[in-house]
Write a structure and sequence with these properties.
By secondary structure, this protein is α+β, with helices and mostly antiparallel strands. The chain has helices spanning 48-56, 84-88, 97-103, 120-126, 200-212, 267-272, 278-293, 327-336, and strands at residues 7-12, 17-21, 28-32, 40-45, 63-64, 70-73, 108-114, 130-134, 138-144, 159-167, 173-179, 191-193, 216-227, 235-245, 259-266, 296-303, 310-317. The protein has eight helices and 17 strands. The protein has a five-stranded mixed beta sheet with strand order 5-6-7-9-8, covered by helices on one side. The protein has a four-stranded mixed beta sheet with strand order 12-10-14-13, with helices on both faces. The chain has a two-stranded antiparallel sheet with strand order 1-2.
Length: 337
Amino acid sequence: MIARGLLRPTLVCSKSIRWKVKDKLRFDFCDQLDSRPSGLCRNRSFSFSTFRTMCSQTLFVGTKDRFQGITVDSTKEPCEILAFPDILKVFFFNVGSLNKWREDKVRGVWFKVALADSGWVPHLAQNGFRYHHAQASYVMMVAWLPENEVCNIPQYASTMVGVGAIVMNDKRQILVVSEKYRLFPHWKLPGGYVEPGEEIVNAAEREVLEETSVRAKFKQMICFRHVHNFTFGCSDMYFIVALTPEPGQEVLKKCDREIDAVEWMNVEEYLNHPNVHSTNRFFVSKFLEYEASGISLTYHEDTHQILKKSYLVYSLDLGQHKKMDSPNDTISQSNKQ
């Protein structure tokens, strides 16, 4: 530990501190300095690079959100691990990031910690942060600061989205597959999980192409199944989409990595096949019912007026069925009577 006279502050502010250091090899960092002869020092040694970081590092700034929250990204605000605890909680004279956020009435504080900065995690956990979610390259931790307000931070997304495709050709044959890694013999609809940022209809077209080499385009949505406590304990939504195969798609080529067999099967055979699950029979029966009645569930693309984000809106087209009178039509008829 160096003598007190070798380390003294020359400038103190809410953002940073400059120091005069006579010992050029090592020094001990003080949590607080006061008028007492001994001061309050911790017996810790730092490299000069760490010291420069602590002296030049402002308190964490983060990005504000509309809910009066703050998100700090470790890739955008790097901090050496030895400096991190003090900048988070007790920088100089008890002015740390957490105290500053409390003074500013910040509600939720999020730390997006990249894999390379995983040393931050135990310090965050020791200061009231909990895991919210994790991806391959980062973990997100969060703390709720108000003591007189119930935490309303939503849980991370808990539903996975999958898609299955009904592809029927002009011969009334539907495209079916048998998976390579299966629990029991079965014929199922081609499909899989929707990728992040992927539309359901595009996922159906992609999965069919990957598993069977058939190119097909969206025709209509049929139905969906919702189940809880599924893969990874998540809820699961499975959307069934009808696709129309493009011309010349008779030749099939299976994906050897995932699929054991693929074929065009007569729809009547599929509905009565012993190795077809009853739920899949229901999906195909509904498809045939919609085909016969002219009912279809299609979509149109729209854009959010405020957020300026595009999205798809699915709605029912009654087709051959007589559509219900609109409220305006009903009023007009009443006025005539």
